[in-house]
Amino acid sequence: MPKRGALPLGTLLVLLLLAFVPFPLSGCLLDPCLEITPNTTFRCTGLNISGVPDGVPNTTLNLDLSFSNLKSLGSNYFTSVPELQFLDLSRCHIHTIEDNSFMDLPSLSTLVLTANSLQQLGKAAFNGLTSLKKLVLVETNRTSLSELPIGHLHTLQELNLGHNSITSLKLPKYFTNMTSLRHLSFFSNRITSISRGDLDALREGSRLNLTLVLSLNNIKSIEPGAFAGIRLAELALRSAFESSMMQTALQGLAGLQVSRLTVGVFSDHDREQDFERGLLDGLCQVQMEEFVLICLGDFEDDTDTLFDCVGNVSSIRLVDLGLEQISQVPVGSKVKQLECKKCGFDDVPAMKLSLFKELRVLRITKNRSLKTFDQKFEGLSNLEVIDLSENRLTFSRCCSPQFRNCSNLKHLNLSFNSYIRLTGDFINVENLLYLDFQHTTLFGPGSYPVFLSLQRLIYLDISHTKTEVKSQCTFCGLNSLQVLKMAGNSFADNKLANNFKNLSHLHTLDISSCKLEHVDQSTFDALPELKELNISNNKLLTFDPGVYQPLQALRVLDFSRNQLTVLLDSAREILPDSLLLLDISQNLFDCSCVYLDFLMWIKENQELLQNEELMLCHTPSYVANVSLPSFDLSSCHVDAGKVASSVVVLLCVMVIFLLVYRYYFQLYYSVVLLSGCKHYAERGDTYDAFVIHSSKDQEWVTKELVEPLEGGRPPFHLCLYYRDFLPGVPIVTNIIQEGFLSSRNVIAVISAEFLESKWCSFEFDIAQSWQLVEGKAGIIMIVLEHVNKDLLRQRLGLSRYLRRNTYLEWKDNEISKHIFWRQLTGVLMEGKNWNHEEAKLM
Amino acid sequence: MKTSNALLFILVLLYINASTQWPTHTVCKEDNLEIYYKSCDPQQDFTLSIDHCPDIATHTFNIRGTAVLRHSIKELYVKLNMIVNGRTVLTYSETLCGPGHSKLIFCGKKKGEHLHYEGPVTLGIKEIPQGDYTISAKLTNQDHVIVACADFTVKNYLDYY
């Protein structure tokens, strides 16, 4: 039997072997495929296999075999996965694709063969791919189109031949049949020239939507007429030409009809292209809708011809150009949209741009050098949109003088600039609907009613413009305004007063991050249509129901990042039924049980509340940072059992307290007796007896008890309170220490007065307990004759004691006295230590 | 007994999986400047060289880098962390290929393609800090997937001019 814990030699060997197997092999030991979606999508990458892995079921639609070492594909290679729609064979070291390799894949729509240096490609390699829409042959060592066996792929929509060594764009005849082709890419090939007839296959039939990418080639020449009669959706020519051959090559585009033409370079391409006079002359013969010129440097003074041949294009985009000014604009230009992004302007070239009479949309954005706006736009009666955002503009007298006779302007974007002074003059642009100044420092708004003439404006964004709203009439005139965004500004005294009184159509109001501390009662009275209110990131302490009551159309309310402690019942009641989203996260919530109803409301309204995970308790400190929705409400519910037990405990304590108060002396001396009796016992017997008696019986005691006993033979020594108690010591201490502890016996003189006296009964109680504890001092009872028996019976304890114990009865006659004396001396004699003298006397 | 065997078996397999470590490559080794790197992408290594090492003091220098893309780079973002004594003291990030604007040639390359960059690099910081430290570089794509990842060990005592 093998010992537990000892590894059998065989297992050890296997493990050692495993430790040294190369990594790819160990991959095979594990399941090689990752199931991305059950039964349909599998990823089996980096494998050293031949054939589809066994774990892939025949229901698979998408299969990724990239980075595997397949080497070659034989016929019917994918028989086991006939439903396949997507097949990725990127970088699989495939050098050979035999005929009919994809024979059993009638549903395959995408085939990716990126980065396989195909050396042998069978004439019928792609046979059977009757639904193929996308074929990627990037980096596959292709040198010519004619050898590609794809003529029968009539359904093809996208053919990507990027990063190959194709030298000629001569499209074989079969392209005529590919009527669905939308995207044909020769990105980064070695095409050097395009000749007449190369693109004949595209000329036939109605082909409107083809995008042809010829970027990153070495085109030296395009034979005039090569593109004549061709219609394309897009033609991309970035870094497509050999150095300095661009101008002549572009001439060859004559006769082309294209929706979008992109010309330019890549910024990291070593062949830089400067703009030279007449560079784009060739485009005069090209019919296009959109022209994109991208990444050209060094415009210098040669821009005269920039728009010469593109003046009839409806849309022009100039991106990342060193264009510093616009020198010449052809008369009768038909440009409707013009965009200059990342150009080199210093001043807004408004005068020249005003020559584009048909202009409807103008965008000049991301110009780092654009700082001034001195020129004026004039007579652009069709202009609707001007976007001058993300420049570094600084100018005054905004915004009427800059736009003369531009009465159709509806959309003005001056956001993300440096500094703009508003005068309130918007006369030329009274029809503005959208005005955006965000993140541009403004002067004017807040101090003066600058928007008075913008009666039609529906959208105003002055967020983060360093505006301080001081004037009550800041937004006067904006009677149609629907959206007001003014986050990141401030209000006078950090108080929201009657600032929005005329904005009765307002739908959206953003006053977040405005340092607000207080909102006046009537602030929102005039906003019955408000649907969205963002008042987050302020310093508001309360949600006053009276303030928010008028907002009965509210759908979204963001009250996050304030200093709210609780949403009181009255505040929750006024929240309108239309409210869909409420954000009160990141406030300083008080999770005391006092607000139990609020905490319960939070739990019940989790659908309404946003950012629940950020709703945290702030106080009390023991629940700080506890999430509100997960707050344990049961900690606030009072437990009946706990209440009952605490009441019982309290009652017990009270009872004990009362008892202690009532029997304080008894208890105290019980303790003294129990703890200290041993100590006191060592005091020895100074007295023969301690006499307990009422002060009213003192005469009897002196005459009938002390004189005969102390004067008699043998003489007894009695302890009497009026004689032997030490002054300055509490009575009770004397009773215990001088009386009980120092006496061998206790003589109780029971009379009517004894029964009346509290001290006497106390002394008698102690005597009894003393007798019980020590078992030493005997109690000698002397009952005087005139004691009322009824009273004695009332003192039940005493009467019971008398019933159980023998006692002496004093009667005032000689015979009785004699018997009394004999009995008393007899008792006292017991246990007395006689010294010599006394013994002699006897 | 069976359980312990299975456990050991799994441990051995894990060890094999986790032990893929790429070698450390040397980029620069000069008197005042040493730069080494090691790929931290378990799937692949890559090559990188600097044309003239002392040029890094001029803020713009030429590099050559080659890698095989495991993921497409429709968008590409670079993030650098400078780590001194195990603590990140500086982070720097930049968009190389942003959505909708591909100013660099390699933007838009797909999975499996060869990525080769040969050209100038301009640093966004004033000067490369002196001393011994590690720079952890990560390239991520539009899906936040790591495209390439490397830890550079730098020993830099160059004087700036």
Automatic annotation (TrEMBL), chain A:
Its main location: membrane. PROSITE patterns: LRR, TIR. The chain crosses the membrane at residues 643-664. InterPro entries: Leu-rich_rpt (IPR001611), Leu-rich_rpt_4 (IPR025875), Leu-rich_rpt_typical-subtyp (IPR003591), LRR_dom_sf (IPR032675), TIR_dom (IPR000157), Toll-like_receptor (IPR017241), Toll_tir_struct_dom_sf (IPR035897). It is a single-pass type I membrane protein. Belongs to the Toll-like receptor family. This is Toll-like receptor 4.
UniProtKB/TrEMBL annotation, chain B:
Keywords: Signal. Residues 37-154 form the MD-2-related lipid-recognition domain. It holds the Pfam family E1_DerP2_DerF2. GO terms for biological process: innate immune response; positive regulation of lipopolysaccharide-mediated signaling pathway. Residues 1-20 form the signal peptide. This is Lymphocyte antigen 86. The lineage of its organism: Eukaryota, Metazoa, Chordata, Craniata, Vertebrata.
